[in-house]
Amino acid sequence: MSNLSDVSKLPPDSGLSRLEVRKSWRAIVPVAVTIILALAPAPAGLSQHAWYYFAIFAGVIVGLISEPLPGGAIGLIGVTLVTLLAPFVLYGPAELAKPGFNAGDASLTWALPGFSNGTVWLIFAAFLFALAYEKTGLGRRIALTLVKLMGHRTLTLGYAIVMADTVLAPVTPSITARSGGMIYPIIRNVPVLYDSKPNDPSARRLGSYIMWVAMSAAMITSSLFLTGLAPNLLALAIVKRTANVEISWLGWFAAFAPVGILLLIAVPLLTYWLYPPGIKRSEEVPKWADRELAKMGAMSAREITVAVLVAVALALWIFGARYVNATTVALIVVAALLTTRVFSWDDILQNRSAWNTLVWFATLVTLADGLSRVGFVKWFAETFAGQLSGVSPMVAMVTLIALFFFSHYMFASVTAHTTALLPVMLAAGASIPGIPVYQYALLLCLTIGIMGVVSPYGAGPSPIYYGSGYLPARDYWKLGGIFGLIFFAVFLAVGVPWVLSIG
Q1: Which residues contact 44 (CB under 8 A, 6 or more apart)?
Q2: How far apart (Å, rounded) are the C-alpha atoms in residues 91 and 473?
């Protein structure tokens, strides 16, 4: 049999294409990881069933990274496998020995609560908000208006892109829908006006600059607003379950605002210096945006409806948290969008991303909770904390935050990263005397958005910008490393002292 290195030499009719081999290995790797870990002896201090559970959990995370199937399918397979093998992976001998204990019924009860989690349904509703922006064209109008007002210079065009993302972020938790589905389709039309072509030396004239600014801005706004990135909401559920810490929308924003606003102001200028465009000024961009707006005409009734409903939702999320649950607000707005025919029920049924994410997040919340249930998180925390014994609480906290941030190079999914590492890092920090748990949990959560800048696969829209032809691989990796260091340095210098000071 030919080895994998000979795949490229296979004739076209061999029945085994490179794509098929790649798909096969994407499926094999998660299974192999699960089996290899399960066959290894459990580490000292950890029960065997907890180690088996971790093996399945690790396989699910690797599956989310390699993506042989959609995330929802992988999460469902993981939960189903744990439920099936519950007597061996979910429950210890003491629980199984209890009179009348039924592992089958108990495991099913364990498996389903994720689907009743309010955060999961808030994420689902968020995708429908994005659908409303797309269906009515409101998102496109907002971005075009900002380009028209600020597109006279390349630098101010960069700030227009930043502002467009900032306006959309609080009400568009899908970073892929916001940046990849709203911002990118608009700005990709701009470079060609200046003969700045993709996959060509002329890309640096304008296209490379605006693509990197747009991508970087999306990561910052994803950390600035709790509702700017879907995994932020997942992180909230994990923090509440693992550390019993609750973080409000306003508390999140206030904690990251000094860092986020500073970075949003700095990114267009830093990119202008570190990755300078060939064209510095032109009058064509605002004229083009003006023409596109003229084609759109006046705001439609549907656009106005969406704008009003979203404004109401945002106001209630910020000021009404004591009186009405955030998920309830979102569902009310979705019902109103259906009633006013902004979109139809068929549109919702056809929104595959929304349903996939619903299943994905529901199962991931359950699986992440299982790590705590079987004792793996406690064991890891105690083991890791032991390595930091004698270190000052501040140094230990910064070390853990840095590890959480830069380990994102190993993940192609912010959700997978959050699910796999956040519970463990929370428990590790909470077990070290002197670390303020609330501030530490908040600081970890605030890095979830900005860490996506480090690689071409770091967040949903990253592959879109990477595949635009304006950001060559060498440039992308270099810029990702530089801006990743800048983002983290500013977070440490400004964000950490600020969060500790506000308590």
Answers
A1: none
A2: 47
How many angstroms separate the CA atoms of 229 and 220, rounded?
10
- Residue 20: predicted pLDDT: 63
Task: Output the pLDDT for position 340.
Answer: 94
Rounded Cα distance between 108 and 9, Å, is 49
C-alpha 461 chain-centroid distance: 10
Instruction: Give the angle 199-204-205 at the CA atoms, nearest 5°.
Output: 115
pLDDT at residue number 410? 67
CA distance 441 to 384: 17
384 sits in which H/E element: helix 376-387
Phi, psi angle pair for 21, to nearest 5°: -65, -40
Provide φ and ψ at 252, rounded to 5°.
Answer: -60, -50
Angle at 144 between CA 138 and CA 147, to 5 degrees: 145
* Of 478, 466, 470, 456, the residue nearest 201 (C-alpha): 470
CB < 8 Å & 24+ apart, contacts of 307-311: 307/138, 309/132, 309/333, 309/336, 309/337, 310/129, 310/132, 310/171
Tell me which amino acid residue 437 is: V
Cross-strand pairs, 153 = 281
Nearest to 180 by CA among 124, 229, 231: 229
Scan for tokens 């991508």, then name that residue.
215
How many angstroms separate the CA atoms of 74 and 64, rounded?
A: 7
Q: Which two tokens stand for residue 422?
A: 């956040």
Q: Single out the residue of 250, 233, 222 nearest to residue 124, CA to CA.
A: 233
**Cβ-based neighbour number of residue 301 at 10 Å:** 11
Q: Which two tokens stand for residue 121?
A: 């349904």
Q: Are 327 and 117 in contact (CB under 8 A)?
A: no
* Separation in Å, CA 46 to CA 41, 49, 194, 376: 10, 9, 62, 7
**pLDDT (0 to 100) of residue 457:** 75
Name the nearest CA neighbour of 162 among 213, 222, 212: 213
**What's the pLDDT at 201?**
87
pTM of the entire structure?
0.70
Q: Which positions of the chain have pLDDT values less than 70?
A: 1-23, 181, 193, 318, 321, 410, 412, 503
Distance separating alpha carbons of residues 108 and 99, to the nearest angstrom: 19
Q: Which 3 state secondary structure label does DSSP give 161?
A: helix
| Strand-pair partners of 281 | 153
